[in-house]
Amino acid sequence: MKKVSIIGLGWIGLPLANHLKSLGIEVVGSTTSLDKLSRIQSEGIPAVHFELNPFPQGKGFQALFQAEVLIVNIPPRSRTQGPDFYLEQLKFLRSMIDQSPIKKVIFVSSTGIYPEMPREEEYSEDFTLSLENCGNQTLLKAEQMMEKDRNFDLAIVRFGGLMGGERIPGKYFAGKENVAGHTRVNFIHRNDAVGILAWIIENEFWNEVFNGVAPIHSLRKEIYERNHQDLGFPLPASYQPAKAGEDRLISGKKILEASFQFEYPDPLDFKYQS
Predict the structure, then answer these.
(1) What's the CA angle centered on 29, arms 107 and 62, to 5 degrees?
(2) Could you report the per-residue pLDDT of 68-92, keeping only the tens digit for each?
(3) pTM for the predicted model, two decimal places
(4) Which residues pair with 5 in a beta bridge?
């Protein structure tokens, strides 16, 4: 039986911990919040307090580095901390991984790493990224830091827009003016994000990069209308004029070809908690 550590028992990490536990996998995770820590522990998930400020702080966090598999799920908070802080966090984290018995790592990244430029062809995992063309230099440097001179297997998952639960697209644009409704989305439902991470562990898909996006790219306007119809959120007050060639699509073909089965392949069918 594998033991899996999850750094970041947040919006994805906590449901992932519960899912892995249901599969009979031993799990330990971390949170930066002491208030949240007791609540997580009361739900039966072994959890420790662990922060990277950017050096490691907390209590009992050594347990995170005694697993076979480590999931790193700490997104950069560039607005509040700046990009350099995140890279310093990862530098300390990478040092701890290198000194541990961990053999396999999943690094959660984002499709924000791809160029912001729209184009006819979808951006796939084999698109050559550089500091000059990428959409987020911090993410690219982070992935490179995890890749470099490693003695562990690594899988990188670049998630698209994470939706589900209380994250409802129509809620964010209700009543807004001049909303883009003519472009298609690169969304993924939380259930499928959890499923992808567990699927990698169960099927040993290491030393790969996967785009975690639903295979159907619905129109934004259609999604807002469905959220209005199903959940009662007001429609946007007005839309931008529709223009051709403004889609920036991320390919999800690789993960489909590897036989991952989506619970929610179409964002029009996403389930929410309103």
Answers:
(1) 95
(2) 999 999 988 866 777 899 999 999 9
(3) 0.96
(4) 28, 70
